[in-house]
Amino acid sequence: MLGRDGFGIRSFRILSGIFLIVWLVLPLLPLAIWSFAHGWFYPSLLPNQWSLKAWEYALSDTAGVIDSLWLTIGISLAATFLSILVGVPAGRALGMYKFPGKGLVELLILAPVIVPGIAVVLGIHSIFLYIGLNNTVTGVILVHLVPTLPYMILVMSGIFANFEPAYEAQARSLGASAFKTFWYVTLPAIMPGIVVGGLFAFLVSWSQYILTLLIGGGRVVTLPLLLFNFATSGRNDITGAIGMIYILPGAIILLLTARHLSGRSGAVGGFGQI
Amino acid sequence: MSDRIRIVVLLFPAMLIIVVLFFGGLVVGLMRSFNYMPVIGLTEPNLQAYWSVFTDQEFFLSFLLTFHIAFTSTVISSVLAIGAALLLRRRFVGRALVNFLFQLNLTVPHLVGAIGILYLFSQSGSFARLAAEWGMIAGPADFPELIFDPYAIGIIIQYVWKEIPFIGLIVLANMQSIGEDYESVARSLGATRWQAFRYVLLPLLLPGVLSASVMVFAFTFGAYEIPALLGANFPAALPVLAYRKYTDVDLAARPEAMAMAIVIALLSAVMIVIYLRYSRRRIRD
User: B205-232, pLDDT tens digit by residue?
Assistant: First the structure.
């Protein structure tokens, strides 16, 4: 300990804490209020009338919000599943082995984490033009792998670095097949990593905008695209409702994984992209 | 199966996807930026696109604006994040709540934050209404232009809101693993609180702060939807300009869009070099 803090310092701490809390919540408040507002014009501080119209509209069959929600969930689930499928083996190679060229492989994986999507998506669009993947859901899922896969690999290589391969060797020496060893020994040990990495990869895909806009070509309208359209068309009440729906999965995932979300885990690095 | 073959098999699918999509996209972008595309009969590479981009005043202004957005947001976020981490490492009423909000904020997409900032800071937004209520302004036009403004203030506010928790949580974890022993020693040798922070803690934190800031800089330099929503029409941020050029009805503008994408990629390559330098140093320590 560095000795007791004086009254001044303690008050300063509490004041800055209050300021931080207000500041962190503030931008989300108008969205939440707008979603229940019926007419909220300058200079009223609060809506003149409250209503559930925006929510009724957003949740109705005709608005397309629900369709878009399912589409977004589908795309993010597919991108996450593919990232796990391909990322777990790669994470194992990087976490458990030393080999020539490892530095280069790590660089190849780190690059997409730092280079912004706009820098590569124009070129990807030109490639997809020739193989007919533009304006398709498949194309959008594939392009979402650019940010999600490297992220999954980085998380899994951290998990495998702490994995004890001797357990696998023991299972094999006791007569377990390669598949059984994986299923009963390896998988349970790395499962927490797969779950946390997968949930965060889901969020990375969930937040993609420009990749979807360009490769989807306006035909694949995920939730962020819909949200942007409503935000720029001035329908603030519906924007508010869609915005609330859009941040819901993140909040749920946070409740499931809060203890993994400290800066100590490599998992946080991926949040630079959300 | 030998280790070598095993490693190749484990890595192959992931490397295939990353090399084809990411580096394929990069290389095709590079080729098109040089007007070189044998598939469509362009076999003579040239520097036309770069020439017209670099001599265009709009590109120049756009680059400066984007650099200003990324640099200012990164510096302000990093400084405030260190402050927030210093706050969060001590017990105080409400610490758990701040910690929770930091984590919640990490999961909120930038686009949502940008819409929130729009509703708060626009000339008919919440703050303008407060100002009107208190009689500080007569009408919306009197409220300072913070959205769609030439200095990109709204965009920077949004990034600061979103990146303080990101950098802050990384710095806080660093602080906790460094511990307070070094500072205690400095204090017992007569250093003031400020000196212990400035000469002992800060140098220890710097590599972590730098590697997080580099990610923030690259992100804020290349993000599209935030400046598209909160930015002025002219000059627009570089990613917005590149997207506009690429989707222009005039297909001849596409190589110029690619040239801008390559400029963004080059700048992020510099960020990767800095990142590697400092994240390696952190490991070595």
Answer: 999 999 899 999 999 999 999 999 999 9
- State the ipTM, two decimals: 0.92
Sequence-distant (6+) residues with CB within 8 A of B174 are A263, B204, B205, B208, B209
Q: Is A146 exposed, middle or buried (0-12, 13-18, 19+ CB in 10 A)?
A: buried
Q: What is the total count of domains within chain B?
A: 2
Q: Are residues B7 and B62 in the same domain?
A: no
Domains in chain A with CATH codes: 52-273 (1.10.3720.10)
Q: Which of B12, B30, B46 is the last residue of a domain?
A: B46
Same domain, yes or no, for B132 and B256?
Answer: yes
Distance in Å, alpha carbon of A59 to nearest chain B alpha carbon: 19
pTM metric for this prediction: 0.93
Query: In B, which residues are within 8 Å of A264 by CB distance?
Result: 173, 176-177
* Inter-chain CB proximity A243 and B115 less than 8 Å: yes
Q: Is A101 left (phi over 0), alpha (psi -120 to 50) or beta?
A: left
**What is the domain extent for residue B79?**
51-284
Centroid of chain to Cα B87: 24
List pLDDT tens digits, range B228-283.
Answer: 999 999 899 999 999 999 999 988 889 999 999 999 999 999 999 988 888 765 44
